[in-house]
Amino acid sequence: MKKIVIDAIKQVKIHLNEGVVSLFFHGLKSLVVIFINWIILNKLDSNDYVVWSITSSVLMIATASDLGIGQHTVTLLIHSKKELRKNILFKACIAISPLFLLSFIFVYFSLSGPKYYISLMALFVSLRLFSIPFGALLNATNNFKIRKIIEFITYLIAAISISIILYFKKDVNMSLLALNISFILGSIIIILATMKYIPQSILVIDSSILKSTLKIFTGSIPFLVSNLTSILTYGGFIWISSFILPNLSIGKLSVLHNFLFITLYQVYDVFLRSKQADLILPHKIQSLLKLNKFIGIGTFLFLTFTGNYLLIIIAPNMHFSNFEILCFSLFVVVEFCYLIIQSVVQVDLVHSRGLFVYSIIRLFANFAGFAIYYYFIPIKSLSLFLLFLSLFSFIGLLLSNYYFKLKTTFTLWR
After folding, report:
1. What would the pLDDT profile of 82-101 be if each residue is shown by its tens digit?
2. Residue 414 falls within a domain, yes or no?
3. pTM of this prediction?
4. Which residue range(s) make up the domain with 73?
5. End-to-end CA distance of the chain
6. Is residue 23 part of a domain?
7. Neighbouring residues of 122: CB distance < 8 A, sequence distance ≥ 6
8. What is the secondary structure of 59-116 as a DSSP string?
9. Which segments of 256-317 does DSSP mark as H helices, in order?
């Protein structure tokens, strides 16, 4: 037991030292995000909080749906020379440009409210898409910490703005608009911050630009399916669940998802992305897989035994059963395992193509959980919803891991 603990501490030190700045600023950002959600939860009524959660979910879908171009750009930049960065970014921006209109239409018809409000929300979300390739450059150059610093500043501006709005006028739409404006400012700062990492090379624009753009599209297909799958449990989770669960359950699920899942998931995501360029090295991958076991077990125990105490502080007016917390803890750990598979495989030029099959397996497993609960479970409760989703998601994880074990040398467990 002592040896296991010492080994875990060593693995933590190796990786934590590499991404300590990213984790520090992500921690600060997480505190600000928790404050924003807490103030919304406590200053507005429960219906407005549901509106806030569903709208936030819609905005996350719109910005995450980049057809996988963002992650494909990271992979291209990692394996390319510095002189080619400008051309890669230019082509990535062209590839993303058609999504501007699609994102605008999706947000415009998914939200409700005054036309000026819906139009501004859709416009700001769509414009943010163009910062995705620049954020990819920061990832590819192991400067993920810069993104975290900018995100912290962005959310700090949002928190101040929303606090002022709620102090003078308790308006959920104005609060959401302030959040969106803060995000567009953050996107502009990200673009400006990447300028020094783009060499002053000649930008080649010729007849092959269309062919190159199509290559980015085709190369992004595995990441596209992966992104769409992640929407089911991450960005669009609350929005999709709102079609299945009643408002009371959506309010409780929003608290679990926004305060606990998103916070823990993003910390682990930052932990992996802070040295994403190193995830092509076999010894780094092996040490991460060992560490993942301890993180998974620790997270499950932490949420199971302390979740209710945290939720009493966060949402004192809501009651969560121990069974709901248990099912939710299992759901979080399974998503952690999916995240490490995705993080390792997607930076490998050869094995990243396997993301397509992996994502299809994951998509069908999650969809089966949603569908079986909706069509075959007469009692609509949050605990049963989380139980079915977690069990089917776990089955998908086992099948995905088996697939990669057959096709590559990668496996979660040895």
Report:
1. 888 888 888 888 888 888 88
2. no
3. 0.75
4. 2-407
5. 19
6. yes
7. 103, 104, 105, 107, 108, 111
8. HHHHHH-STTHHHHHHHHHHTS-GGGHHHHHHHHHHHHHHHHHHHHHHHHHH--S-HH
9. 262-273, 282-314
